[in-house]
Amino acid sequence: MTPVLYYYLWVAPHLVLGVVLFVMVRRGLHRQFPMFSLYATWEILQFVLLFTIHLSHVHFGEGYLRAYSVGLVLSTGIRFGVIHELFRHFFHRYPALSGPGRFLFRMVTVVLLLVAVGLAVASPSNGADFLLRTTYGFLDRTASILQCGLLIALFLFSRYFALPWRSIAFGIALGLGIFASVELATSAVWLHLGAFGNVFVNLLTMGTYHCSVLIWMFYLLAPEREPRYTLKTLPGHDLEIWNRELQRLLQQ
Amino acid sequence: MTITLILICVAFLALVLLVTLAKGHGSSPEVLENPTEHIRSVDVEAFRNLIDPEEEEFLRASLPAPEFRRIQRERLRAAVDYVSVAAQNATVLLRIGEAARQSPHPATAEAAEVLVENAIRLRLYAFQAVARLYLAMILPGARVSVVRVAERYEQMTRQVVMLGLQYPTRGVSAAL
C-alpha cells in the first residue's frame, strides 16, 4: 500500500500543478503572478528531474539527495518571491496601505529571521550529515518559519482591515501557508531524527503538498466572488433620511 | 527534543491560525444587504470632549489626584470604546465602498474609492489611537493625541453622504 501511496503522492500533485500552470497561462494570470508561475514551472521541472534520477541506477542515493537539496534551495527562494508577490498584489490596490504594508513585510521578516537564526544556533544536531543539517537544520526550517509568519501576518492584516482577496491570490496564500506550517514541523522532526527519508514524515509532507496544490487548483477554478451590493436596487424612501443627514452634517 | 516539540506545537498553532483566519475570508454579505444594522452611532463631539486636553487640565486642577486618575481612566476607557465603534463602522463602510467601487457610474466609483481610502486610514489611526489610549490609562498624566481620528471620522462620514446623495442607500449616513 505504502509504495502505491508514495508514488501517487509524488506524481499526482505535479500533474495537478501542470494543469494549474496551463490554466494560468491560458487565462493570462501568469502575467499577474509571474513568481507563482515560475514556482509551478520549477516544481514540475524538479519533479521530472528527480523522478528520472530515481528511475536510474542512482535511485534514492547520494546523487538524488544532492539534486533534491539544490532543488529545495531554489524552491524555497522562489517561494519567498511568491510571498513578496502576494504582498505587492494585495497592497497595490490600496495606496494608503502600501507604506504600512512594506513596513509590515520588513518588520516581520527581520523579527522572524532573528527567531529562526536563534533556533538554528540553539538546536543540537543528532548525527545528521552536513548536507542534511544545512538544508533542513537551517535553510528549510528558517524558510518555513519566515514563510509561515509572513503569510499569517498577511492574513491578519487583511482581516483587520476587512479587505477582500482575489480568489487566486487567496488560494495561493492559503496553500503556501498550510505547506509552510507543516514543513516547519517536518523539518524539525527530520533534524531531530537525524535521518533522511522517514516514511511517515515523507508521506505527511507529500500529502500536505498535494492538498496545497488542490487548494491552488480549487481557487483558480472558483469563480471570483463579486460584491452583490447594487446601489440602484435601494428603495426611494431613503431620500428623506439622506436629506436629514445632510442637514445635520452641514450644521456641524 | 524540547526545541523539536516546541517547533511542532508552533507549526500546529500556525496551521490552526491560518485556517481560522482563512475561514472568515470575504464573508458577511449581510453587511452589504443591511449596512444600517451593522453601523452604530458615534458621537464625535462626546469623543472630542473625552480627549480634550483642556478638559483634562480642568479635571486635574479641580479634583484630588487619586480621584482624577480614576476619572481619567474611565474617560480614556470610554474613548477607547468610541474609537472601537468608529473603527467597526469604518469596516462596514469599507465593505460598502469596496462593493460600490464596481459601480458602472464613474462618480460613484470615484466616491467609493475615496471612502475606502479614508476607512483604511481610520482603521490605521484607530489601531494607533487605541494603543496610545491604553498607554495613557497606565500613565494617566501622559498626553494623548488622537484628535486626527475624530477628524478622519468626520471626513469619512461626509464622503458617505456624498456617495448617498448620488445614489441613496438605506440610511447609512443617518446611523453615523
Write the layout of secondary structure elements.
The complex is a heterodimer of chains A (252) and B (176).
Chain A: H1 2-27, H2 29-32, H3 34-55, H4 62-91, H5 95-122, H6 130-160, H7 167-193, H8 199-221, H9 238-250
Chain B: H1 2-23, H2 30-33, H3 35-38, H4 44-50, H5 53-62, H6 65-100, H7 106-138, H8 147-166
Helix pairs in contact in B: 5-6, 6-7, 6-8, 7-8
Key features of this structure:
heterodimer; A: 252 residues; mainly alpha; 9 helices; 81% helix; globular; disordered C terminus; B: 176 residues; 8 helices; 77% helix; flat
Structure write-up:
The complex is a heterodimer of chains A (252) and B (176). Chain A is mainly alpha-helical and 252 residues long. Chain A has one domain. Chain A is 81% helix and 0% strand. Chain A contains nine helices and no strands. Chain B is flat, with a radius of gyration of 20 Å. Chain B has eight helices and no strands. Chain B is mainly α. Chain B has one domain (43-175). In chain B, α6 (65-100) runs antiparallel to α7 (106-138), α6 packs parallel to α8 and α7 (106-138) packs antiparallel against α8. At the A-B interface, α5, α6, α7 and α9 of A face α1, α6, α7 and α8 of B.
Structure described in brief:
Chain A has 252 residues and is mainly α.
